[in-house]
Amino acid sequence: MGAFQLLLLCWFALYLAVKYTGDERRPDVGLVKLRGATRGRTWALVGGQSAVPMLAGAVLGLPLGYLVATAVTGAIDDPAVVSQAASLSVGAVAVAVVGALLAALLAERRSLGATVAELLRQAPAGPVRGGTCSTWCW
Q1: Lower CB count within 10 Å: N or C terminus of the chain?
Q2: What is the mean pLDDT of residues 66-81?
Q3: Is the sign of the CA dihedral 70, 72, 75, 79 positive or negative?
Q4: Residue 85 · residue 76 · CB < 8 Å
Q5: What percent of the chain has pLDDT over 70?
Q6: In sequence order, what are the residues at sequence separation of 6 or more whose Cβ sits closer than 8 angstroms to the Cβ of residue 76?
Q7: Are 14 and 65 within 8 A, CB to CB?
Q8: Which stretch of 14-18, 43-47, 98-102, 119-123 has the lowest confidence by average pLDDT?
Q9: How far apart are CA 28 and CA 66, in angstroms?
Q10: What are 63-72's contacts with CB under 8 Å, separation 24+?
């Protein structure tokens, strides 16, 4: 149960990291949309920026985790237990990576659903606050 709670915490941290870095990439997504990229191409571009490091981490982390676990606990002699542990490890990695990808795409949904004008806007949208100026303001 503790591992699942840790996984949820990691997904939340990943969501926040992708959300804040995604805000910095909004003008780039706007330029891609401005150039006529399809919705699927835009999703693939934005999702790929998060997916590549996640998949690389999974590919490197699975064998490294096995080596560390073997070094700490020793080798397992029973082939049935080794097979079961390997299948459970691969399943856990798959769940972690799929959840991480979903968290990243969820964090990017605001950029993906915005119009080009909203993505390219440098100042936040909304009314001017702090005073009114009906004619000239110097």
Answers
A1: C
A2: 88
A3: negative
A4: yes
A5: 88
A6: 82, 85
A7: no
A8: 119-123
A9: 39
A10: 65/89
